Amino acid sequence: MAAQPDLPLSPPAPGRTPLGPGAAVLHGYADLAALLPEVRAIAAAAPFRHLVTPGGHTMSVAMTNCGALGWVSDRRGYRYERTDPQTGRPWPPMPAALRALAEAAAAAVGFPDFAPDACLVNRYVPGARLTMHQDRDEGDLGAPIVSVSIGLPAVFLWGGLRRADRPRRLRLESGDVVVWGGPSRLVFHGVDPLPDGDHPLTGACRFNLTFRRAA
Length: 215
Ligand code: MD6
Ligand code: FE
Fold this sequence. Notes:
Elements: E1 16-20, E2 23-26, H1 32-45, E3 62-66, E4 70-74, E5 77-81, H2 96-108, E6 118-124, E7 130-133, E8 145-151, E9 154-158, E10 168-172, E11 177-180, E12 189-191, E13 206-212
Antiparallel strand pairs: 1-2, 2-11, 3-6, 4-5, 6-13, 7-12, 8-11, 8-13, 9-10, 9-12
The protein binds N-[(3-hydroxypyridin-2-yl)carbonyl]glycine and fe (iii) ion.
């Protein structure tokens, strides 16, 4: 199939792994020294918690949010909320430096208009995993998602548009940023159980920030 000029194809470039149309890993893109204190401040205002899925399973990944909207799950379903159900307060604001990082990464992969209003913050300890899923609770599926990895490396599973598609396995290191949107926006993906380890910045832990346009 010939490339269409209006399709956000991400060209091969140094430090980049193309995943498909509109999707790529930008290796070592994020400045971590600046990010980690922001994550700690978010967690101080809106503590990490293990959400329950609609099916009644407690997730092994602990989550919190910053930005106008936060992703939550409980027995009633998955959705975005303006307030943290645990504290009753709005989610902490999205720090300008985080937002700027997400916007620059999106632009580098062909999405210059990305304006995130939600940032889900995931915390993995060894053994924590994310089973294959699509991110489809956002109101604007035309906007990409930008995902930043911090701390221990993880194996990211990059599947296809059908749940049964066999996933590629990609190692995500601290500082890697994954962008996906356009024709790849609804690709199934997941994270293998986090291997044990000790990272100089985070200890036995991996954080992942995913920026979305939820409204
Ligand atoms: C993670 N990320 O990397 C989990 N979803 O820890 C996701 O589930 C994800 O990285 C949508 C877009 C990017 C992601
Ligand atoms: Fe996801």
